[in-house]
Recover the amino acids of this structure.
């Protein structure tokens, strides 16, 4: 107290200076301060461009691209020539028909073919007679006698010829009927060869027999195609991101290196409890709950040595950008009209606000394009004065002794004061 009473003006001066310092600090350091100042930066990110991707990572199971079913009347079969798990090829015999059924069909078709061959012979004989008797299409005679041509021609052909006046027209009619008869003979030959070759149930594709069942008097063969696909199951949010045609990278056990492929189809109907491949995958992997949507993925390479039901990993690329930057999403400043910007530090150590074009966002990062130069420091989204100076606890580059030699004592004083 004695000190205060003896030096009142000194104490008053100290109080005034403290008040000035306090008021100045308040206006300098409050959030919306307009007073220029230096900011301490303890965390920053260095801008760097690269190929940026957002992927949906899923467990995927190897399944057939197609599943075929073929049925036959059990009573018409004499034997089943295939077993479950057997590898088959197109036109392989899966089951044999009873002999009497095949023989009856062949007898019927061969009788029809004999009749058409006889008719063809009669037509060709009639054509030869007309060309020999009347000299062909250029003969000057204006009419022909159909009774003298061939007695074996059928009634309809004779009637059609009798309505014509010239040999040239008769030749055209016979040629048309010959062509039609040849076509019928060819069709019958094809059916006869088919019956002879297919004396039973024939496999339509290369693949594997997955199931053989007999129910209600019908034998059914289920065949997995040799061509394989990968199946994965999406949540509702993932379904919104995945599109047909997007690229996929696969990792499979017993296979060296990654495989590439594409999204073939995503289902619009939720997977049900009867889905064979979803239930198979659920034995070793967790499927999205409560709803899953199946997506078909097709690999570029053939999976020859990978069995069905093999479980691997699939990474579906849902977003990508070339020569793009990456920053923490919390560091992006959102403005009106869907515009975005980030705080950076320029080469003079001053803070700037740079506009960016957002390409896409991941769980915790924003991918964007900008006119930023690689190596530019990016700092957190906190209210700062533009062009204010900054200082950092960690240098951007490794400090070299040569740099200290370039800095004089005046530079240190200037930095400390200002």
């Amino acid at each position: 107290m004695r000190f205060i009473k003896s030096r009142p003006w000194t104490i008053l001066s100290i109080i005034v200076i403290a008040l000035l310092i306090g008021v100045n600090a308040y206006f300098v350091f409050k959030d919306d301060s307009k007073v220029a100042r230096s900011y301490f930066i303890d965390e920053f990110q260095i801008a760097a461009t690269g190929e940026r991707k957002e992927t949906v990572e899923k467990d995927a199971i190897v399944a057939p691209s197609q599943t075929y079913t073929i049925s036959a009347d059990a009573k018409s079969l004499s034997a089943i020539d295939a077993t479950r798990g057997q590898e088959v090829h197109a036109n392989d015999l899966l089951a044999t028909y009873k002999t009497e059924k095949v023989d009856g069909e062949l007898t019927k078709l061969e009788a029809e073919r004999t009749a058409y061959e006889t008719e063809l012979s009669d037509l060709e004989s009639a054509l030869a007679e007309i060309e020999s008797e009347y000299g062909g299409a250029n003969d000057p005679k204006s009419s022909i006698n159909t009774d003298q041509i061939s007695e074996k021609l059928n009634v309809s052909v004779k009637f059609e010829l009798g309505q014509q006046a010239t040999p040239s027209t008769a030749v055209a009619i016979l040629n048309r009927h010959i062509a039609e008869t040849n076509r019928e003979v060819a069709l019958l030959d094809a059916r006869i060869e088919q019956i002879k070759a297919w004396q039973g149930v024939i496999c339509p594709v290369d693949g594997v027999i997955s199931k053989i069942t007999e129910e209600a008097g019908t034998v059914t063969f289920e065949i997995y195609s040799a061509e394989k696909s990968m199946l994965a199951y999406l949540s509702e949010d993932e379904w919104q991101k995945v599109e047909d045609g997007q690229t996929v990278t696969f990792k499979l056990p017993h296979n060296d290196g990654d495989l590439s492929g594409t999204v073939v189809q995503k289902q619009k109907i939720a997977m049900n409890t009867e889905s064979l491949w979803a239930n198979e995958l659920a034995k070793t992997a967790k499927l999205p709950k409560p709803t899953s949507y199946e997506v078909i993925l097709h690999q570029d390479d053939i999976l020859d040595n990978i069995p069905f039901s093999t479980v691997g990993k699939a990474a579906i690329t849902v977003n990508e950008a070339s020569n793009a930057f990456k920053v923490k999403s919390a560091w992006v400043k959102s403005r009106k009209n869907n515009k975005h910007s980030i705080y950076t530090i320029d080469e003079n150590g001053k803070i700037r606000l740079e506009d960016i074009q957002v390409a896409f966002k991941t769980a915790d990062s924003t991918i964007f394009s900008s006119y930023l130069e690689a190596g530019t420091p990016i700092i957190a989204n906190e209210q700062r004065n533009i062009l204010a100076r900054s200082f950092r606890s960690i240098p951007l580059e490794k400090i070299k002794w040569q740099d200290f030699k370039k800095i004089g004592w005046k530079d240190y004083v200037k930095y400390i004061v200002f």
